[in-house]
Specification:
Number of strands: 31
Structural class: alpha+beta
Mean pLDDT: 95
CATH architecture of the largest domain: Distorted Sandwich
Number of helices: 15
Radius of gyration: 27 Å
CATH topology of the largest domain: Beta-galactosidase, Chain A, domain 5
Largest sheet: 10 strands, antiparallel
CATH class of the largest domain: Mainly Beta
Number of domains: 3
Shape: elongated
Low-confidence stretches: none
Amino acid sequence: MPRDVPLGNGSLLVAFDHQYQIRDLYWPHVGQENHAMGHPFRVGVWVDNQFRWLDDDKWQRQLRYGHDTLVTDVKLHHPDLNITLEFNDAVDFHEDLLVRRLNVTDDSNNGRTIRLFFHQDFHILGNEFGDTAYYEPDRRAIIHYKDDNWFLINGGIVLEDGDAGPGWPPTADTKDGLVVGIHQWACGLKEIRNLEGTWRDAEDGQLSGNAVAHGSVDSTVGFELKIPAHGARTLYYWMAIGRDFESVARINRNIRERGPQVYLDRTAAYWNLWLKKHILDEADIPHEVLHEYAISLLVVRTQIDNGGAVIAANDSDVSSDVRDTYSYMWPRDGSLVTNAMILSNGIDLSRKFFEFCTTALTHEGYLLHKYNPDGTLASSWHPWYRDGKKEIPIQEDETALVLWVLWKHFEQFGDVEFIKPLYRTLIRSMGDFLSAHRDAQTGLPIPSYDLWEERHGILSWTVAATWAGLDAAARFTESFGDAELAARYRKAADEIKAGADAQLWRPELKRFVRMINPTADGKYEIDPVIDSSLAGLWQFGMYAPEDPKIVQTMEAIRDRLWVKTNVGGVARYENDRYHQVSQDIQNIPGNPWFICTLWLSEWYAATARAKGDLQKSLDLIHWVVDHALPSGILAEQVNPFTDEPLSVSPLTWSHAAFVTTVHAYLDAKDRLQKSGALSGG
């Protein structure tokens, strides 16, 4: 199930599903720990003795972000209840705090009493063991805790003339007459003894008032609003998170004194300000593309931990058959996402990423498979032992691309003081490893695991990335006056390209192949499958995009991997079985992926010589916009028949690729304008 609207500040990430239920809640790191584990935090409405949760199919939903900000703008209408709910939700940009503003409109001709219920289904630290939920009477709040993970849930309403209120007045230090405190509550057990949880208790409109529960627990809080015919009332809900009682009590106190609206307003203003540093000139690009560009930057930011880890995806519904997730930092994904942030002037985020990689780097100069958000080594399926001998369990592109994007950072920002301490610890260490970890006969990198996490060999993508890493190392060492070392790195890069010409280019196929593998007789087994990742051969600079060999390869990708349904898009490779929907391989070689479609768009931009060439790039950019969720979220892939998101959603890489491709399009447009090519057809 996709996460239609993620909200975050780099330490707290809250993700809502398509029904506008919280399904993932990560803290204190983006991607670690998940205190919801995909279990829905429900919201329900009681009116005229009818009750509906937000997962009811009759809700008419519009799930979007506010303009250029990480504050939601969500509208829900239920025809049976005859009410409209308008949500503005935000994770505060500074505090670990979720604030929700709910405006409730009675669309009937009669004034009515409406009760709103918010359910919390915590699995603190990723499990349901040993949690406690209790009602805290001084603050009229519910608190959940386990160890040093504390969650305080509270809310309030603003009384208007004639309102009865919940039975207590606003305190003297409360902002704008807000009456703080939950009106109803229940703490109870779930997932044991056939108990579903306290949310069932809410369905008659009245909670039990049970004040404490421990073990596998949940809680529900309720608020009552008296609304005149065609009138509206507002309530606020908030969740404060901290390491102890005092931490969450302090946040709750500040909200009471300043008012919850302040936190919504300041968060909206912060993200508006943040985007001004990154946004493009509106005159250069269609409005709908500019909107998706802004959304993509914001979504990427929600998936980056403040410690520098760029997390691939945080959709807990998608887990592998061995119960693992995407909530890790792959250095490859991190490098490509960081490149997008560099292109959009994101110097601070890129610095944090390189600091993370420097800490993670082994003494031998390579990065391992993937890392947890806190910097520890993550799970891996790569063995240290293969074919009777020790083997380094790496994907070599993950080391090389960090060097490649570090040079991009240096080119963009001229960040000499930042680069200086990385020269020996990162640049030379990685450069030495990449130059040495090669086959003496061919010059190509020693076989490693591929970018798709599926196979082992010498991949064209990895070869191109390794060349790019060595090219970056040579440029750095030249810049720092180390001519001898620069010559060694340059020689290694030249030998890699020569090896690619000799082994990866197949004249009989008139294109490059995605992979070769050495055999016992000293020859190579050829993998002829057309794979969109062959785009890496020009993306990282080893070949020019207009090189005839690249042109033939990219045309093969376009012709063979385009999905021939009404959905369209570019598949990953021929007969891609990951989340495979159809076995009609001739027409549907695989599901359409956003990044693969964007790679083709980027190539059209890079090779554009006339207005029509540039339009091909823009058409594919529009394809991405048209296939995004209404909120702007991009999944990993979509169903080739229904266009529904498949696999994780959002995928950070998808949004980063959109940003990168838009820049490629604008660069091409600028180039053609200067040459006068856009004045004609």
